[in-house]
Amino acid sequence: MAKHVWLPLVLALLTLGCSSEDASVIQNDNSQVDAGVDQGTEPAPAEGTIGYSAMSLKNPFFVIISDSLKQAGAEHGFSVITTDADTDVNKQANQIEDFISQGVDAIVLNPTDRLAIGPAIKKANEAGIPVFTCDLQCVAEDIEIAGHIGTDNFQGGELAGGAMVEVLGEEGGEVLVLDFKQANSCVLRVDGFKKVLDEHNASTDDGKITIVAEINGGGDQDIGYKAAADSLKAHPNLRGIFAINDPSALGAWQAVKEADRLDVIQIVGFDGELAGKQAILEGKIYADPIQFPKQMGQGIIEKLLAYQAGQEYEKITLIPTALYKKEDAEKDPELKAAE
Amino acid sequence: MMKNKYIRVLLVDYGMVFVLIALCLLISLLTISDMQPEDPGAARKLAASLVKEAGADINVLVVARTTAADKAFANALREGLEQGGAHVVGVELGDPTSLRKRLELLGQQDERLDFVATHDFSSKWRVLSSQSRVEMASLYPALKNLKIAKPPSYRWPTFLTANNLIGILNQNAPIAIMAIGMTLVIITAGIDLSVGSLMALAAVVTATTIQSYLGGKEAGGWDIAAAFAVAMGVCALAGMFAGVIVTAFKVPPFVVTLGLMMIARGMSYILAGGADAVKIEAESIGTLYSSSFLGIPSQIVLMVLLFIAAHVVMNHTAFGRYVYAVGGNETAARLSGVPVVAVLIAVYAICGLSAGLAGVLDVSHFGTGRPKAGEFYELQVIAAVVVGGTSLMGGEGKIFGTFIGALILGVIQNGLNMAGVDSYRQMVIYGTLILVAVLIDQLKKKVIKPTVKLAKTGEFDSF
Question: Distance between alpha carbon A87 and the CA centroid of its chain, in Å?
Answer without folding.
Answer: 12
